[in-house]
Amino acid sequence: MEYQVGQIVYSKDGHDKGETMMVFSVEDGYLNLINGKTRKLAKPKRKKIIHVQPTNYVDAVIAEKLTENEYIQDSDIRKAIKMYQVKAVDC
Question: Is the pTM of this model over 0.90?
């Protein structure tokens, strides 16, 4: 599967197992993940692609801001993840 910036993923392994995170950037075989709480924009978590479970949800607003290097805060990331979790529960 192809990962993209702004995509919501779940951690499958490690101390953050089961945690909902967002893709900050994609590198060779690795993802840099953020969640706005423990993993902030200033210090994303580098994780192998095989250790995450992808979702089909990509937050278009956050993705555009990240790719255009626009100003974004950790609170924006937290809100986007929370909105995804609310939508996922409603389905």
Answer: yes
